[in-house]
Each structure stands twice: as structure tokens, then as C-alpha cells.
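Memo subject: From amino acid sequence to C-alpha cells
Keywords: amino acid chain, backbone geometry, C-alpha cells, three-dimensional fold.
Body of memo: The sequence and its C-alpha cells, given next.
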Amino acid sequence: MCRSLVVLISVAVLFSACALDADDSPPAPTSLRATTPSAPAVPPDGEAAVLARVLDGDSIEVELSGATVEVRLVGINAPERDECRGDAGRDALTLYLEAGPITLVAAGDDDTDRFGRLLRYVYAGDAPIAEQMLISGHANVLQGDHPHEDAFVALADEAASSQLGMWQPDACGPEIATATEITKVEYNPAGPDRDNSAEEYVVIHNGDEAPVDLTDWIVRDESSQHRYRFPPVTLAPGAKLRLRSGCGDDGASDLYWCAGDAVWSNGGDTVLLQDPNGNVIDRVLYRGDY
């Protein structure tokens, strides 16, 4: 189901009887490359590198100019190593990189991230690796105003709509059949973000005819920085609740994340609602302004 909220792009992950197996292996790199004919050729100004090791589904170490450096793939975020499908993401990235040789290409104005890792598009042979991770559902898009961002968003939407990889309704355990969904994202309320985070919120709606126990369900963004786990709370049939990013006293219809700052990026983000196992119940992606 595709639906428009306060956003430009919104895709809900629904529940299908024809979901893929949770332990699916990634498609061969060559077959993935064939599905992306518009993917750019390897730019001539790329740097040749030698793969040293794969750290997880979105970061690697390479030998570059006589030194070992860590590289963060631009535009994607794979599950963390201790999260559901963390191993699957790392294994998929390892497989895709075997097509080699490795070429690193700068992207946008930022050369490194806050951890000092190089930010690069990574190619193995002529295959764009970040695109492959998105197409197969082994990574989510990570918006950040880079040249290929529009294409990356489209690939992530297609994988989610097709319920591939991390978007399978039973990717992390038994599927929960529910109509619970995200119905609104207030990501840019009036005033400075830091001073008004309590007015930044998402709305969760129970569309079922029975109560839904949200205990230990998770709301998270597309990065690895923000995770909220619900306390013991049950949502009545047809009821809605607001999860506010700031601090306050929880009530019948409002919960407070107390995240310490704004959660939802004004430049674009993905809101994920997950069950306690990590299965994605709903997904809303919006595009913002940088």
C-alpha cells in the first residue's frame, strides 16, 4: 500500500502470505547489476583500493595508498551487527565485493564522517555496491544530500514494496498480522529544533478490532542513532498515540521519548515501526529540505 501523509514518499510494509524465507541469501552481484541499467559507470577519478575486511553491512576496511583506512558506504545504513539481519548484511556486502576490483569515489562535500571514516561510493568491478545492498533489502537508505540520493530512495522504496531482505514481514521472527500503522510525522515544528523537540512527534494508530500490546515495540529512524522501545502500553482498537521526541510526563495519548534533541531530520528521514523481534510493521519515508 502506498499512502501520502505529510510527506512526499510513503510506503507501508504490509503482510503477505508469499513472503520470502527469512534466511534468504543475496542474489548474485551480476543479476543485481542487470536490474539497474541506469546506474552510473565508475567515474574515471575513482581511487583503486584493496579490500582488507568487511566490518558490517555498510562499512569496510581497505588498503589505500599504503595505509589501512575505514570506509563508510555513502547513502545506506545496514542493521547493526547485534541487530536482526546484521550478519545477513555483512555477508551480502562480502559477496558483492568479491566481484572486485574495488574503486572508491568521493560523494558530495563531506569527505569523512564524525568518526573519521572515509565517505565513499564503492564499486566492485563496474557494480555499484550501495545500490546492490538497497535493491536486495540488506540495507535501508540513509538520506544526506549526496548526488545519487534520489535514485537510492527509489531503490529502497522498491525493495520495501517487494518485501525483500529486511523488509520481509517475518524477517526477524514470526509475523505479527496487524493494521497498526504510522499515520503522521511532525518532523519540523515551529521554532528551533533543540528547543521544541516535544512538538516533534509521530502518531501511531491501531487499525485492528482488538487491542494491540506495544510493549517492547520499537520506533527508530533510518540512522543508527535513534531507537525508542515502548514501555508496557496497550493501544485500544481505533486509538492513536503520539510519541513525542522531547521530555514530559507520559499520558493516555502521549508518550515522551526524551531523546535529548530532535530525532527526525528536517532534510529527510525514514520512520520505522518494529515489533519486539525487529520485524518492520510500518515504514514511512519523507523527503525534506537541506
Remarks:
- DSSP finds four helices and 18 strands in the chain.
- The domain at 181-287 is CATH 2.60.40.1260 (Immunoglobulin-like).
- Confidence is low (pLDDT under 50) at residues 1-23, 25-38.
